[in-house]
Amino acid sequence: MAKRDYYEVLGVSKNATEEEIKKAYRKIAMANHPDTHPDDKDAEERFKEASEAYEVLSDKTKRQNYDQFGFAGVEGAAGNYSNVYRDFSDIFSGFGGFGDIFDSFFGGGARSSRSSQGGVNAVRGASLQYTVTISFKDAIFGTKADVSYSHDDACDVCHGTGGTGTKTCPTCHGRGQVSRGNGFFQMASTCPTCHGSGMVIENPCSSCHGTGLKKKNEKLSVTIPCGSDDGTKLVLRGKGNAGPNGGPAGDLVILVRVQDDKYFVREGRNVFLQVPISFTQAALGCEIEVPVVEGGKVRVSIPSGIQSGKSLRLKNRGVPAFKGSPDDRGDMYLTVIVETPKHLGLKARGLMKDLAAALGEDSSPSPIPFER
Length: 372
Fold this sequence. Notes:
This protein is an alpha+beta fold and about 375 residues long. It is built from 9 helices and 15 strands.
């Protein structure tokens, strides 16, 4: 089933304030709380859907990307519900039991006790973003770009483990959670010391001080596929920051920015170009040479009597599908602009008067209806 618009999910307008978004999410989360609907799969889905929407709309950058590019602008950002828990747990302050709900639904996320890789307290590393700016032509036909960036890598002394030996966490005493509040109204959250594992490293590595990480400069050659557009995101799995204590690495997200072209404009898989022609070329018809996006020029026949603003279609001269075949392209639309001469010599003026007389031009023309 297709995703619903995030604003629709929360029942707020696109101009909603942060407080309105927060209140709307709290209302839906409480109404579809799995503790009160243990066997209601529809409530569970509504809870997850609202959490995903809130995770995007509560973040200014993600919300801006979503408003501009839709779901494509937040690809990979939504769905990490642990961010909702970590950054907005205060929404549910004073409501007992909500810590358990987030534990069960958000799968631990950034606070998982152990990773399938690494040792105690191992968590997944953060993803990074790198912006690559390319030309209009390179976006259409693809190119390669060199990416130089710095990221966290596994410590070469402890090999990313952070040290040796384990002991019970002194903060949570092995429970992996700490509680706050009094009496009935208590909220459990992941222990900040052991990140939920209940254990800590007994002998931290002296080189990385127990983090299992070191800084590394890296250079990659990234392939930008044909058909890429401004705002396209390419995800390089495992090329982000290494996880603390031997956890798996995050991703490197390549954000593609495309420079505007002076003459060509792109809409989807089609490109548009406008060229001037003279009054006589429009009246008599002609052949002209026009540039194309791949470089060079092609000859185009202009029919006699063409009107200014009329577009001609040049098939298969547009943009290939994203990651598709370079030979399967959209179209190019050529718009002709008839230029009226601003300065006429005596001979040209005389010829124009003779032409006007021959055409029997109307000095009281009827209006032309707008095309709606």
